[in-house]
Amino acid sequence: MHPASPAPSDDTALIIFLGIGFLIVGIIYIMPSIVAFRRDHPNRWIIALINIVFGSTIIGWGIAMIWAMRAAHRVGSASSGGESGLNLFVNDVRKVQLVEPPPLPQTSAVQELERLHDLLVRGALSQVEFDGLKAKLLGGAPSP
Question: Rounded distance, CA 31 to CA 121, Å?
Fold first, then answer.
């Protein structure tokens, strides 16, 4: 009789255990991409690229996860933007109301002459420039 041969080792349980373990680790690894795609993040493809390329580092995985979790401003939303963080393909639109500027205050000819004289005294205008502007203001031709 042959001595009792050892029973073949049951590797099936080990293979199943390792398969489930790799599956769980893989899901955790690509979790930032899953979150970005589930939330329809505007930068989901860039997040997926960072997640796949740099996800093996804890920092790369963390950056991808934080970016995927950040709020993204949508064009049709009621918010004014600014909460979106780093969005490479989404512009935060700022609503601007266009209004007419207030009319310039009307100055009298006397006030304008006083202003021109003040500029002449301070040296900002020469006598020739002052005479020309004064004549234009009073509606006459400049004196020679």
Answer: 75
Closest of 34, 33, 42, 37 to residue 76, by C-alpha: 42
Residue type, 52: I
Let me know if residue 91 belongs to a domain. Answer: no
Asked, for residue 96, whether it belongs to a domain, the answer is no
13-69 tens-digit pLDDT: 889 999 999 999 999 999 999 999 998 888 889 999 999 999 888 999 999 999 888
Domain enclosing residue 43, as ranges:
12-69
- Stated as kind and residue range, the H or E segment containing 127 is helix 127-138
Q: What is the pTM of this model?
A: 0.45
User: Is 21 a member of any domain?
Assistant: yes
Could you read off the pLDDT of 101-116 as tens digits, one per residue? 787 777 788 888 899 9
